[in-house]
């Protein structure tokens, strides 16, 4: 049976000579893997571009719960990006976001609220003209709410990571602002503080996500946002 759904591409692996297996977080079915044939052939008209990380797709798909691999009947890019692929800061943030989603999203039923949060966050990253250096910090702080371990305050995060927390520190204040404010609201954070806060937020994640492990995109992210 065919279903219409929106999707967010996470990643793909090559399969045989010209095909791929792509993981897409879909609005209707959650995390799903699809096999796409002949997309890497010379006659594919560069369709592989549709499967770059965080691409937003409109899909018509087959879905069988008994199958680990399903197929796509129709697909088109919902929102063509101009900034995320070409702006090195945004592409580095997108790389980090993608890695975090791959590590934290599970193959469950569709979650409309989580999907909408992800979809709107990606659009926000694409369209923001400035002041997006803290975007990745706010993204993972907000994402935790949908993953089931939302921190109520900055103090809670630091307490879980370090134990006792000193009051009224710059670190506590900035983390609290990042936690509570929207993407568009500016938070003054130095490069050094940004790196330090990210490490602590990731330590907080590791307390709740067993398989988080090393986040490989950090090296690129730190270099670009330095």
CATH topology of the largest domain: de novo design (two linked rop proteins)
Global geometry: globular
* SSE order: EEEEEHHHHHHH
Low-confidence parts: none
Assign the CATH architecture of the largest domain.
Up-down Bundle
Number of strands: 5
Q: Using the coordinates above, name the CATH class of the largest domain.
A: Mainly Alpha
Adjacency order of strands in the biggest sheet: 1-2-3-5-4
Please give the oligomerization state of what you see. Answer: single chain
What does this entry look like structurally?
This protein is of the alpha+beta class and 226 residues long. It folds into two domains: 2-77, OB fold (Dihydrolipoamide Acetyltransferase, E2P) (Beta Barrel), CATH 2.40.50.140; 88-224, de novo design (two linked rop proteins) (Up-down Bundle). The chain has helices spanning 88-104, 112-127, 135-147, 154-162, 170-180, 191-206, 218-224; strands at 2-15, 19-26, 30-36, 56-62, 70-77. The protein has a five-stranded mixed β-barrel with strand order 1-2-3-5-4. A hairpin with a 3-residue loop joins strand 1 (2-15) and strand 2. Helix 1 packs antiparallel against helix 7 (218-224) and helix 2 runs antiparallel to helix 3 (135-147). The longest helix has 17 residues, at 88-104. The N and C termini lie far apart (49 Å). The relative contact order is 0.13. The model has no long low-confidence stretch (mean pLDDT 92).
């Amino acid at each position: 049976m065919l279903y219409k759904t929106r999707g967010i591409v996470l990643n793909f692996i090559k399969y045989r000579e010209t095909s791929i297996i792509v993981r897409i977080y879909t609005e209707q079915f959650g995390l799903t893997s699809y096999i796409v044939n002949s997309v890497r052939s010379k006659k594919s008209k560069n369709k592989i571009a549709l499967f770059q990380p965080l691409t937003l797709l409109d899909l018509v798909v087959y879905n069988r719960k008994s199958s680990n691999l399903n197929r796509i009947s129709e697909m088109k890019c919902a929102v063509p990006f101009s900034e995320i692929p070409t702006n090195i800061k945004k592409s580095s943030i997108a790389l980090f976001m993608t890695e975090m989603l791959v590590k934290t999203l599970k193959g469950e039923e569709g979650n409309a609220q989580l999907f909408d949060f992800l979809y709107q966050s990606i659009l926000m990253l694409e369209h923001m003209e400035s002041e997006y250096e803290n975007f990745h910090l706010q993204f993972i702080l907000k994402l935790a709410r949908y993953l089931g371990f939302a921190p109520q305050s900055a103090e809670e995060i630091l307490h879980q990571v370090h134990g006792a927390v000193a009051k009224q520190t710059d670190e506590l204040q900035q983390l609290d602002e990042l936690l509570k404010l929207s993407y568009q609201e500016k938070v003054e954070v130095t490069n050094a503080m940004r790196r330090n806060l990210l490490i602590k937020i990731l330590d907080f994640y590791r307390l709740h996500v067993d398989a988080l492990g090393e986040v490989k995109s950090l090296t690129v992210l730190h270099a670009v946002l330095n």
